[in-house]
Specification:
This protein is of the alpha/beta class. It has helices spanning 2-15, 24-29, 35-39, 57-60, 62-75, 89-96, 109-116, 119-147, 180-196, 210-227, 252-259, 279-288, 314-326, 341-351, and strands spanning 18-19, 79-81, 152-157, 201-207, 233-237, 266-271, 292-297, 332-333. The protein has one domain (2-351): Alpha-Beta Barrel (TIM Barrel). The protein is built from 14 helices and eight strands. The protein has an eight-stranded parallel sheet with strand order 1-8-7-6-5-4-3-2. Helix 5 (62-75) runs parallel beside helix 14 (341-351), helix 6 packs across helix 8 and helix 8 crosses helix 9 (180-196). The termini are far apart.
Length: 366
């Protein structure tokens, strides 16, 4: 099944630009959800606010999440992402475990080892990932069958709320709150659950710390080797004004060199500062990488006065992504924060009939 899906998607990327969906969080906000909606009966007694834990909506408001997937698919998305950006035990612990810093302690590897071994957090993380993947699978297949066009489910793997590259302690540059193996173990569970739920692809996205991403990629490789099943991998980084990953500060080229051994289906940029500032860094990546290039930027900069919370509307995003296509830079296009189904529909329409980027050959030094 995985080989067939990979072959099909690769052929799509050779013939046209594929469309990936928009922002789950932005679209959720248009439904007017409140704290009571995300808690439901199951989490009604939680001691912390949960409204910013959007992954939980897959369990407490599945009808809404499925409706969002449906809308993105009907807008033209070939690839929809699972609602699992923060669905690891490490990230979920922010909402369900007391912060030791509030009692004079600190978060450190000993604290996170308890998180990794917490059965309730692990069960919750598994359930969110598996259920979200099943929700995507159901709607991708339904819309695919109705339209005669195959749709794909990308298991979304986010960057975590901790960093392996940087110390949070200005007086102890060598201190890390978490270890590589702990991060890898959290990702191992997420990857297995996303595969169990029916994902076609695995998407390591919004990478601001390359070392965190490496832990995710190691986890993916271990799952593939141990379980005997492989899926295509997409990799996407978030960069700053200088084109560097936000915490590990790798340049675009250095980032590609750090992940190319994985032989991903695609590599690209997402989130970041918006499409207007992304062009030169996307061009650099397109020049260096010999795989498909993806691009799904924020809808500009945050703007609390905007309906979506971001500056750019559907027509704006369509224009920018159209420029990327005319520049021969992209194989996969969509939107990150601030992009609703209306944005994706405009992008899909603007890119219809546009030629995909042609893959570059690897240059080997003499």
């Amino acid at each position: 099944m995985a080989a067939r899906n990979l072959h099909t998607l690769e052929k799509i990327l050779e013939s046209r630009i594929a469309i990936i969906d928009g922002a789950m969080g932005t679209t959720i906000r248009t439904y007017g959800m409140a704290e009571s909606h995300i808690r439901g009966e199951r989490f009604k007694d939680s001691s912390k606010d949960l409204l910013n834990n959007g992954d939980l909506f897959s369990l407490t408001q599945p009808e809404m999440i499925c409706d969002i997937h449906r809308r993105f698919l009907e807008a033209g998305a070939d690839i929809i992402e699972t609602n699992t950006f923060g669905a690891t035990s490490i990230t979920q612990s922010e909402f369900f475990v007391d912060d030791p810093r509030e009692h004079g302690g600190r978060k450190d590897p000993e604290f996170y080892q308890k998180i990794i071994e917490d059965d309730s957090l692990n069960r919750l993380a598994w359930e969110i990932n598996e259920q979200s993947a099943r929700q995507c699978r159901t709607w991708a297949d339904r819309v695919g069958n109705e339209t005669g066009r195959q749709r794909f489910v990308a298991g979304a793997i986010g960057p975590l709320t901790v960093s392996l590259s940087n110390s949070p302690d200005a007086d102890d540059a060598g201190f890390r709150v978490v270890t590589f193996d702990q991060v890898k173990d959290a990702y191992l569970l997420q990857v297995r659950a996303l595969i169990a739920g029916g994902s076609d692809l695995l998407l390591v996205e919004t990478i601001f710390d390359s070392l965190n991403a490496k832990a995710a990629l190691v986890a993916i490789r271990e799952v593939f080797d141990e379980d005997g099943k492989e899926l295509p991998i997409m990799i996407s980084a978030a960069v700053g004004r200088g084109g560097e990953t936000l915490i590990s500060a790798q340049t675009t080229e250095a980032f590609w060199n750090a992940v190319k051994h994985v032989k991903p289906l695609s590599v690209g940029l997402n989130c970041s500062l918006g499409p207007d500032l992304m062009y030169p860094f996307l061009q650099e990546l397109s020049d260096k990488a010999n795989v498909a290039i993806s691009c799904y930027p924020n809808a500009g900069l945050p703007n609390p006065l905007s309906e979506t919370g971001f500056d750019l509307g559907p027509a704006d995003m369509a224009r920018y992504l159209g420029d990327f296509a005319r520049g021969g830079l992209i194989n996969i296009a969509g939107g990150c924060c601030g992009n609703t189904p209306d944005h994706i529909a405009a992008i899909a329409k603007a890119l219809e009939g546009k030629a995909p980027r042609q893959r570059v050959e690897v240059k080997v030094a003499a």
